[in-house]
Here is the input.
Amino acid sequence: MRMIDVAREAGVSAMTVSNVINGRTGVSAETRLRVLATIADLGYQVNHAARHLRAGRTGAVGLIVPDLDGPYYAQLATRLARDLHERGLHLVLEQTNASPERELEAISFGRLRMYDGLIMSLLRLDAADLDQVSFETPVVFIGERPVPPAFDHIMMDNVGGARLATRHLLKSGARRIAVIGGRHDDGTEDMPSLRTRGYRQAHAELGVEIDPRLVVEVESFTTPSGFRALTWLQESGVPFDAVFAFTDAAAMGVLRALADAGLQVPQDVQVMGFDNGTETEFLVPRLSSVEPGNGAMAERIVELLDRRMAAGGNGGAEVPPQVTTMVNARLVLRETTR
Amino acid sequence: MRMIDVAREAGVSAMTVSNVINGRTGVSAETRLRVLATIADLGYQVNHAARHLRAGRTGAVGLIVPDLDGPYYAQLATRLARDLHERGLHLVLEQTNASPERELEAISFGRLRMYDGLIMSLLRLDAADLDQVSFETPVVFIGERPVPPAFDHIMMDNVGGARLATRHLLKSGARRIAVIGGRHDDGTEDMPSLRTRGYRQAHAELGVEIDPRLVVEVESFTTPSGFRALTWLQESGVPFDAVFAFTDAAAMGVLRALADAGLQVPQDVQVMGFDNGTETEFLVPRLSSVEPGNGAMAERIVELLDRRMAAGGNGGAEVPPQVTTMVNARLVLRETTR
DNA sequence: TCACACTTTGATAACGCTCACATTCTGAAT
DNA sequence: ATTCAGAATGTGAGCGTTATCAAAGTGTGA
Here is the structure.
C-alpha cells in the first residue's frame, strides 16, 4: 500500500496525497476530503523510512540518559514522552550507563541522524569531546556538565536548591550536616560541585563552620551508593546530626543505613533529599526533598527543542542558543526534617 | 558522504562497500581492508533511512509498556536494552499509560514498521483486538493477557510464585492474609487472577479458609494504589495479620500505610511483595518478595525475538510460536516476614 | 475575445542504499 | 591452449516519499 495507490484510487496524483497528509496549502477542500476518505478507506499509512530518506525527518526524538532504573530519569522520560506525544513526536531512549564511550557513541553522527532532535544528559563527556561532534541535529543538553556555547542547555537551580535545603536544616538546629555526594574542591561545574556550593553558601550565610569530614564523595547517586556512603561515615565515627543527599535515590539508601544504625529520623538525624521524586511520599519516614521544578523543566526542554527543530540546527544565527537555569527550586518538607 | 563516495575513493563499487559493511562473504581480505580503511578515513556512516527503505530493516526493537515511572518496567527496559545492545539492536520505548487506545495505536501497522521487532506488554487489549492486526513484524508478548496462538508469549510463574509466597506466610503463622490486587472471580487469565489462584491454592493445600473481604481489588499496581488499598482495608475494620501485594510497588504503599496505622512489620503484620525489584533491599523494613526470574526472563525475551526476527514473521510454519512460562520463581525473604 | 494573475494539480527526479543478476577474474583440470 | 567452476566485483533498478517546477484550470478586467 503506497501513496500512489491511494492517489490512483482517489483519482489524483501522489503529490496531492502527500500534500493532504502533510497539511500543505494548495489543495482544494473538495480534493482534500476525497483523499482523506480514500486514505481511511484503504487504511493507508505513510512509510516512515521513505519519508525519512526523502525529507530527512524521522518524527523521533532521542533521549540519552545514564540510567533508567533509578527513579529520576525514568520519571523525566515519562514526562517528556507525554509532552512530545502531544506534538506528534516519539521518544526513543538510549542508556549510556554513565560510560564515556557509550555517551560518545550515542552522539555519533550516524546515530544522530536517526532523530529529529536529541535530549542529552551528559555525565562524563565535556565540552572538548563535544567540539569534535558537528551537530546538525537539534540538541538540548540537560545537566550540569559544561557544554559548547553553540548549544541549548538547561540546568536545574542546583546552587539555589542546595542552599535552600541546607538553610532549612541549619535553621532547624542542625550543626553537623553530612553531605552525600559533595565535593571537596570547587573546580568543576558539575552537579555535585554546584550543590556543594549551595551547601557552603548556606553555612557561610549563617556563620556555621563545615567539618570537611562531613563532605562524603560518592561514585554514583544511586540507592546502594547512598547506603554505602552513610555506612562508611557511620563507621568512621564522624558525628553528624543531619544528612543532605544529593538525590532522592541516595537518600533512600541513607534512610536504610540510618535504620540499621538504630538512629531515629528526624529526632537523632534529619535527612533531606533532592529531586522530589514520586517515591519520596511513600518512604518510611516520608522524605523531605528539594523540588527542582521537574514539570516545568520537561516543558522547557520540549519548548527549546521544538524551537530549534523548527529552525533547523544548532547555534544558528536565527536562533541563538539559550542557557536556561531553572530558578524555581523549592523545599517540600515531609517527615525526615524537623 | 555516501557509500558511492567511499567506493570511488577505495576504487571499488558501492556494492562492495555495502558487502564489507554488512559482513557479507565474497569480498577478498585485501579489498575489505582497503574499504575499511577508507571508511575510517572519510568517517563514513551508513544512512539508516536509506537502508531501512531498501532492505526493510531498522535495527530497532520497540518495547511497549504501560508505564516507566514504576520500578518494574524501568528495570526490565534496562535489562532488555543491555541484552539487545549486545546484538547490535536499539531499544525504543513507548508508553501506553495502560490505555487501550494507546495500546492499539502502538501496534498499528504504521508504527510497527518502525521496528524490526516488538516486545509488547499488554494490559488492556485482548486476543480479539489483536486478531485484527496483521503482524508481519516479529512480536513477543509479555504479561498475562491471552494472546492469539500465532504469537510468542512469555509469562511469569504467577501461580507458582503466589503459591510459594502464600504458603510461606501461612506456615509462618499468618491466618488472615490480605491480598492487594486480588480478584474475586477466577474467570480471566490475567496477572491478578493468576496470582490470586496461587493464593487460593496455597490456602486449599494447608486447609485454611479465605475471608473474601481480604481480597482487595485495585485499579493499578502502583505505590499510591497500594497505599489507598491498605488504608481502605484498615478503615473497613477487617482484621488481617499479613499482606500479600501483587507488586513491589504496591507493597511499598502498603508498608507506608501500615506505618501510618502504627502497625509493626512483621510483628503485627507480615508483608510480601512480588517482582523482587532492586528497591526492596532498601525499604524500611526490607521487603520480602517473590523473585520471578527477571534476568532469565529478559534473556528469554531477546532469544525468542531474535529467533523470530531471523525467521521473518509471526506464526510461520518454520518457527512455531512458543508460549513460555517461567518456572523458576523463588522467595527472597527479608525483614517484612517472620 | 484576450491577456494576466492566481489557484490547483501533476510529472519528474532525486534521497542512499541493497537485491538480483551479470560480468570479470583466478587458477586448476582437460 | 581451452574449458570451466568458483570466487570476487560490478551494473542497474527500485524501495516510497517529497521538492521543484511546469502545466492546466479559474476567474477578472480591459
